Each structure stands twice: as C-alpha cells, then as structure tokens.
Amino acid sequence: MAATPAPPAAPPKPTWDPRKAEPPPWLRPTIRIRLTLLYGGMFLIAGILLLSIIYLLAAQALNVGSELPFKIVSGQVASDSCNFPQSPSAGELNDAMNACVNTQRQHALDNLLSRSLLALLGLAVIAFAFGYAMAGRVLSPLGRITRTARRVAGTDLTRRIELDGPDDELKELSDTFDEMLDRLERAFTAQQRFVGNASHELRTPLAINRTLLEVQLSDPGAPPELQQLGKTLLATNERSEQLVEGLLLLARSDNQIVERKPVDLAEVANRAVDQVHAEAQAKGVEIRGERGLAVVQGNGVLLERIALNLVQNAVRYNVPDEGWVEVTTEAQHGQAVLVVSNTGPVVPAYEIDNLFEPFRRLRTERTGSDKGVGLGLSIARSVARAHGGRIIAEPREGGGLVMRVTLPL
Known about the structure:
The protein is an alpha+beta fold.
C-alpha cells in the first residue's frame, strides 16, 4: 500500500512590512560606508601611531626634565621669558636656568603636539573623502548590478549587465548574474508557452463537453434520469472549467506585472460587490463598508480578481443568519489598503497559512465542497505579490477573518 504523500509545507511569511519606513540612505550600513570607515580608520590609527612616535622621539631628544649641560659660575643672566632672582648665588642661578629651559622645552613639545593634531585632523578628513571616492569607484560595478537587478525584477528579463573591465571578482559576478538571467528568461518563456498551450488544450474539450450537454438538456423528450445525469455532468464540467481558469490565472499572476495603469481600488471593490450581491442576498449576508479613493498602478482585471475572490469567500464562508461582510478601501502611509472582514466560523491562528495553499481549506486538505475550487486565496496572494504588495489574514474575534491587502501607490 503506497504511503500518502505529506501535504506541502506552508510558504514562509513575507518579511517586508509596508508600515515600516526604510531608513535614510546615509544611515544604512552600506559597503561603501563601511569601506570608507575602514580606510579612514586605518589611516587615523596609523597617523596616531606616527604622531606618538614623533612626540616620544622629540621629547627624548629635548631631554625634558634633565639638567643643563653647563653651569653658571658667576655673573648676571637676563631673560624676557624667565624670571631670575636678583643677585642670585651660582646654585640659585643654575636652578632657575634649568627650570626656564625645561619650561621652554615643554612649550615646544606642546606646540608640536597641537600643530600635529591639527595636521592629523586635516589629513583624516582628506583620507576619509579619498576613501569614500575610491570605495565608490571600486564598488560602481556593484551599483550597476543592483540597478539592473531592480529593472529585471520590475519590468523585463531581457536586460543584461554586460560589465566591461578587468577579469576580476566583480566581472565574474556580473557574468554569473547574466548567465542566471539567461536561464530565468528561458524558464519564463517556456512557462508562458506552456500556459498558452494548456489554455487551448484544456479549454477546448471542456467547452465541447458543455455544448453537448446543453444540447442534450434542451431536448424535451429526454427521460428524467438522463436529464438529471446531464445536469450532474454539466455541474461537474463547470467545476472543471473553473479549476482550469483558476490554475491558468494562478500561473499567469505569479509573474511581475509589466503593463501598469492607474486603477482605483474603490472601483474594483464596488464591481466585486456588485457581482456577489445576488449571492449575498440569497444567503442573507449584508455587505457594507465605505470605500475611499485609493489609486494604484497595476492591472485592473487581476486586481478585480483579488477583490472578487475575497468578497466571494467572505460571503460563502459566513454564518447562516445575520451575517455581514465589510469591504473598505483607503490610502494610508503611501499604501493602498483593501480590507475585507466578515462574520463566520472561528478560524484558529495556526490554520491561517494553510488557507493560502492551493486546494486547501479550513480543516480539509483537498476540495470537496460546492463553495469553490480552493484557489481563490492562492490567486489573490499571487496577484498581490505580482503588484509588489502583500495580503495578510487575521482571525476576527467572535469568528470570521479580516483580510488586508496592501499595495504600493
């Protein structure tokens, strides 16, 4: 008996938080800043050592605190900078001269130290500026690699770095990155080709089956058993069509959105509410909430799919009596926010990640219900990521969920 395969693990949670502001560029510990501090710090340490050696050698040469190599036997000594006693003895005069000379030596050393410190400070500023310029010159290929990577992630996989220069580590990194982009471009091209072929190969037979079943059901002379079988097969065929459409949309939405246009999330949410309004009335679920202006750059069809999937799930997984769904949109902190909250069954916090897995539902691992094919939240998360945003689900106190979609303006 074959062992049952383990269910796929939940993907890691996104680490990017739209509510957390990025630090200013001059406060980021970039490699250029670190190299600048390294170069300047090494120069500063070397300058301090050199200054200490010069100071010690100068102090040793001047012999501060030592006696004069000569003595006064008799006579008078006059000085403008030293005070000598009047009519001193030879010993007093020698002591006064020793003190005067040692004072002058100390003044000379202090003057040397202060001027050397000023010179060291000036040279340190020059060294840091030179180190910053040289670090920028050395790291300029990395900046080019980073800019290319950002353009590739946001728009086009056909871009390449094509770095010129000596065959060093940065050139090797650039060539490796270009090779990786080549492989990625081939993989994405093959995926797009597969999605196109699958779209045709899977939709066509399902459409033919639906047409044949509808023709059979339109025959008034068909027996009731055949009519019932046809309705069952038509419902199964419709479910298969929804599954195929969901899989294809999930495959397409995993890529970044290349063509972006201004889209108002409020308008998208209103359209989704209009489409689900009849189903909500049939289930006795009230849809409410204020939807403010929140314009983002993206694909309107895919963004409408996010709102439709979330509102449909909120209506279908609700309480049977006096249930409600609240749909709001607003712009805050440089983000467009769509929030869909609803009443419903209590959802444990540890089950939240599983809800975003394809074909996974609460407390069930595969689809087996008439509420959908189990791809709604997977598609919503994939579309949000393709637009540079994220979707967060939180259990609501009293039952239900709060789904929050944040997209960059």
